[in-house]
Specification:
The chain has 432 residues and is of the alpha+beta class. It has helices at 3-16, 26-30, 78-82, 226-258, 267-283, 374-389, 426-431, and strands at residues 34-42, 55-63, 69-72, 86-94, 101-110, 115-120, 145-150, 157-162, 174-176, 188-190, 196-205, 212-221, 286-292, 298-304, 314-329, 334-341, 346-347, 355-356, 359-361, 366-371, 398-408, 413-414, 418-424. It has 4 domains: 3-17 and 229-283; 26-120, Trypsin-like serine proteases (Thrombin, subunit H, Beta Barrel); 145-226, Trypsin-like serine proteases (Thrombin, subunit H); 286-431. β10 (188-190) and β11 form a beta hairpin. The protein is globular.
Amino acid sequence: MGTFAKLVLLVALLVVGTSGASRAEPHEIARPSLIFIETKGTAQIGPNAKLKDEIQTQATGFVITDDGFILTSHHLLDEHIKFQSLRLSITGVQADYDGDRLNLTVVEANPFMDLVLLKARLPHGETLTPMKLGNGAENLTPSTKLYTSGFPGPTYQPDDGYFVDDQGTTPHLKQVKFSVENGQSGSPVYLEDGTVIGVVKGSLKNSDTGAVIPQKSVFVPIELAASLTSHIRLKELEQRNRELSAAIEWLKKAVGDMGDDIPEGGDAHSRIGTVEDHIEAVASNFNWNAEIDDRGDLRIEYRKLLGGEIQIENIGLLVTPLYNQFAYDASLDKEAVSPIELPPLIANTKKESWFTRKEILDKDRRGVFIIDTFREKLNKKLAEETIKAVPKGTAKVVSVDVTIVPFTEPQQERGAPVTLAITCELSECLNK
């Protein structure tokens, strides 16, 4: 085999990898990453206070890194929080109910998105099998087949169905045509290749009767877990960047050694261009976050792995609220969250009303946008919409989740949603 042919073969392996192995079934891909999770705790308050391990809950989680980070539903912990549990223990069993038990700890939580990140304490040198995280649910269609699997009790249960076209509903939840049972909350929702695009929240219920609607479930899109998984994605990008940088250096040296043997525009040049395109994709990756400061201004910031010319000068915003009303659920015989969806509060998608970047920091890796008096504007909008959506006196406790979606140039494409959570009593929230 000649030098040029060897180069083309090696570049092909670097860029597209090897293929030819038979494709595994979706549930076979997911199963090694599934964790059956159980919690136990002793309530400090309530009718069963001081009874040892009286509070017990269970859910399904899935591994997202080989060193033991696990994603699941936050409502696994709701009863413990409500009754102020002492001696809380969280344990998990990998893949099958009768496997070795892992001790788990809470690393970070986002109760507003009903997500929590756990960490398994692993023996030295041991690893877990992670699932690949996707980029979200924005491109799903009603013909997209989706899969899930988890543990409704000690029994492993897989299922599949199709995405439900829920255009116009809140970005917090997406619908899918399959059934889930108690214990399957926190299960991954994944594509045929095993890529995770969401986390199961639970079955869809009739808002009037509280009865479960057959073959209808809801999941949280995986992009809304960004606040919990951003460091993991950054680690993946850094590793990919190192691999691609090494590939480019090797290729440039190989091409330089061959000199004029390769014609202009030949295969080797196009392969190098492909690898460099991957580097550009890494440089184009933006991770967003948002917060309201003490003055009431909204600070939106993007972070990049690499600096350079690819920056965002202006953004538009889509601001969507979701009220979580706590009310008695007859089917569960306890209080549960009942979401109330509201229309977007702010949707300045017209370019003339976009916001200009205020500053760029950290060697061109961070861009900052400031929206003045955002708290005041938000409260005014919330007050107007609450009068319509929540009858006076009916909400016991309401948390307000505000999802901010930045629109970016040049095609006004949506960026990844940024969750800005505001929690308060309804009356207090409107007076802040």
